[in-house]
Amino acid sequence: MSLLERIPTLSDDEVVNLLANAQRLVEQGDEKQKAAALEVLPLLKSQAEERHAERMERAKEKRAATRKATLRKQAA
User: Fold this and answer.
1) DSSP letter string over 2-57?
2) What DSSP state is assigned to residue 29?
3) What sign results for the dihedral spanned by CA atoms 48, 49, 50, 54?
4) Which residues fall within 8 angstroms of residue 38, CB to CB, at 6 or more apart?
5) What is the pLDDT of residues 26-64, one digit of tens each?
6) What is the model's pTM?
């Protein structure tokens, strides 16, 4: 299984770490490392952004549920 195929199965922390490493290699790596990093960088960026958006949506839903519960408690 290639790295590109594994990216969707990685944890959020692993994606962020791999993204940071790829960005570093694009700037500081040798030609082979830069080429490899440039290959995975777009997918890593999209995965990181997608996962961040999902976390924000879950947090938003949790806050809304907490507000509802608090309002119900105050109304009782």
Assistant:
1) -HHHHGGGS-HHHHHHHHHHHHHHHHHS-HHHHHHHHHHHHHHHHHHHHHHHHHHH
2) S
3) positive
4) 26
5) 999 999 999 999 999 999 999 999 999 999 999 999 999
6) 0.77
